UniProtKB/TrEMBL annotation:
Keywords: Phosphoprotein, Two-component regulatory system. This is Response regulator. InterPro entries: Bact_response_regulator, CheY-like_superfamily, Sig_transdc_resp-reg_receiver. The keyword Phosphoprotein applies.
Length: 301
């Protein structure tokens, strides 16, 4: 029997690798291919057959919604399972995807368990899950976990950054209205910009200390579930009077204590962007343009 094949579509290589690693860990007999956007995926779907597509929404050249719409217009792809994996978790976006014929919906950031549950449901509907599970070795590597790092490291324990003295705080760069900002009396001083950081373990409000085209320096209140290095995440930012919101995909590059003490109440996170979508890059550029001075950019970015 031929292998079950899955096409992973996302403009961020980090997300593609994350998804493929997760699938291969849980389904050793699966075959995975990837595409950097809807246009590339369209070309691949015309040349070879896939059992399932896992696709991002916001991508350059052709979005995930456009690819889904095109697939449902093709006789040979009308019933192919198509799961949207996206940071667009709003009700209106979910409804739009359902109307276009989506088979499942996974919101970023996702846990391995959430992703695998949707994949198993999709493969079960087309009668291919049992065959895939039976073809795998008796003892499979578990890809379940509450952090995305397990999908990248094959389940090895994550390396947590030790607390380190925080760099001198930079003035906030964003003059945008706050997005459910933490109370001013509780948040560290030195940051005017606020956002919302969505992690696999939950949502946290954050202060944006500095911003560049590659990364953002954030401060969040320490909680029971500590964020982990390489955790995938989504940073929601709002700008302007029209309340334009950007959902920026990325991962945690560094986690350190904001204060020079082991029980620091605040953590300083370096959030690296992974999106290659031109609209999102333009959005970040406009946010930077609203900053006060070049010296406030993240060094070396």
């Amino acid at each position: 029997m031929s292998k079950i094949s899955v096409l992973v579509v996302d403009d961020a290589s980090f997300i593609r690798d994350l998804v493929k690693k997760c699938l291969r860990n849980y389904f050793p007999g699966i075959r995975t291919e990837d595409a950097i956007n809807g246009k590339k995926a369209q070309a691949m779907l015309t040349k070879e057959a896939f059992d399932l597509v896992l696709c991002d929404w916001e991508m350059p050249e052709m979005s995930g919604l456009e690819l889904l719409t095109w697939c449902r217009e093709q006789d040979n792809l009308k019933t192919m399972p198509f799961i949207m994996v996206t940071s667009r978790g709003d009700k209106e976006n979910v409804v739009q995807a359902i109307q276009a014929g989506v088979s499942g919906y996974v919101s970023k950031p996702f846990t391995n368990e959430q992703l695998l549950t949707k994949v198993k449901q999709a493969l079960n509907k087309i009668g291919k899950l049992d065959a895939l599970m039976n073809s795998a070795p008796t003892k499979m590597n578990s890809a379940f976990g509450n952090d995305s790092l397990s999908a990248l490291t094959g389940g090895k324990a994550p390396v947590v950054a030790a607390p380190a003295p925080a760099a001198a705080p930079a003035r906030g760069l964003l003059n945008s209205p706050p997005v459910k900002a933490p109370a001013a009396s509780a948040a560290p001083s030195g940051g005017r910009g606020h956002g919302q950081l969505r992690l696999p373990s939950g949502t946290q409000q954050c202060v944006i200390k500095a911003l560049s085209l590659k990364e953002a320096l954030l401060v969040v209140k320490r909680s029971e579930n500590l964020p982990q290095i390489l955790d995938s995440a989504v940073l929601d930012l709002e700008q302007g009077d029209n309340a334009e919101i950007a959902r920026l995909n990325g991962y945690l590059h560094a986690v350190v204590a904001h204060e020079q003490k082991p029980d620091s109440e605040w953590l300083q996170l370096t959030f690296r962007f992974v999106d290659q979508d031109a609209q999102k890059l333009d959005y970040i550029s406009r946010l930077i343009a609203r900053g006060t001075a070049q010296k406030h950019f993240i060094p070396g970015a």
